[in-house]
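Aim 2, interim progress. The first record below pairs a target sequence with its structure tokens.
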Amino acid sequence: MQIIGHRGAKGLAPENTIESLQIAIEHQVDMIEIDIRLHNGSVVLSHDETFPAKTYTLLEEALRVINGRVPLNIEIKEARVIKHLPELLKNYKGDVLYSSLKFQMLAALRKLLPDCNVAILETWSGVRAVAEAELLYTKRIHIKQSWLWASFVRSLKHRGYEIFAYTVNSKKRAAELEEWGVDGIFTDYPDRFTK
């Protein structure tokens, strides 16, 4: 089962910071997830809305730190960042996967970057997740772990979908999800799942 560092390593350092990314890499995660927004004209790492006076980590700084060492899941939090992504990532050599809770944002991204990899990000509805995945020609679904149950996971796996659960901080819950066939988990504490 893959271990994905949630906002870097949110439970071990301030989320969406260089420190958080470095700790996730030290714990040998299989992927790092970050959130992006626009702040004072720059694409920055932030889950929540930004404040004018606050300093944030720039996406380009994060890309330099990660430097292709581990795949990156970029969650798009607002549509206005999308137009900046082709330029910011044009020379990036690592694997990048995009996700968003808003289907329209992923559709807009696909128009701009037709070959980009996307994952459907869903809070609770498996039906909606599958419908959106089919429209975007992806087999990857990221879904809130509390809405998963064994038969649902197995039915999606049978149909060829990859299922990733967020946010899982319990080793017991992770083991249960793995038994059902979940492909990976997002966690705030990658140290608990060090290989």
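The second target in this work package is listed in the same format:
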Amino acid sequence: MLKRSAFAIIALALLAACATTPQQRPDVSAGYESQRISDASGRPIQLDVWYPTMAAEQGHSYNFGMGSVAKGAPVTGDKLAVVVLSHGSMGAASNYSWIAEPLARHGYVVLGVSHFGESPVFGPATMNPANVAHFGDRTRDINAALDYLITTSTYASHIDPQRLGALGHSSGGATVLMLAGAGFSMADMRTYCAAARGADKGCQYPVGAPASDQAPIPSPTPIKAMVLMDPAAGPGFTQAGLQGLKTPALVIGSVDDDFLPFAAHAGRVSGLLGSAEAVKLAGGEGHFVYVDRCSLPINVMGVKLCTDRDGVDRDATHAKLVPEILSFFDRRLAN
């Protein structure tokens, strides 16, 4: 009798687990496609899309890091949840294949968006570091990309736009917060940077005159869950704007950050988002541990992009974070 009861409990637990994640397919491969679209004004937007497929993967170079995908393969599944991926300043969505590929293998469609004027995918001559403060452009690009994905792309018939998540690193984390509707004050950010410029490398980017068209624009489609990896622009988010935001959040931050002080950014954001789950990396991980393993000799404000501190294993850090992120989205985007 006791054995039968135990088996019954186990069976019920398994059924419950399956019921909460009906669309997850851990047995599939990661499909991948990149394409260029334009918004209504003609502004170009680069898309990197990862998605579940049954096709076999092959090694793939993202011209930054290496991955494994089935390029151009057919999509597997229906009513798939979507995760928007927003990159860090002066970066590209394809720099985050370490998390995009596992999400696709787990049954998600990942929409990576890279921004003209900031991302190297459009060519070095188009880049201007002052554009890192152009959150109006960033949010407009993502909203246009989402509209394309949902309405006219080849993925449209496979996705459930009501199950929308978002993931961002650094400026991408700030962008995700803005898309979710968090209140932001550029004036507060400028005031903070006037005093913290020496200690906060995010404040050392050149900033042009305030532009009236750079106010962030929230996503018309509600974001149901968000993952913020070492989010930037923390002091610019108002206390009321963060405390009033009810979107479930997972905030991941490096305690010994070598670029953005933890207390002002990831620590402040996670502390004011009352219901946020938090993961603190306290083993010397720096700000760029959240991008793909790479070997390029790139130096950002005196911090090496591809070289971590002694004792930090970037691959091991990614391996630790992947199940945390998958579990969060599974729980929050199940229905």
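The helical segments are 2-20, 97-105, 135-151, 171-180, 186-196, 239-243, 266-272, 314-332. This observation will shape the mutagenesis plan for the next reporting period.
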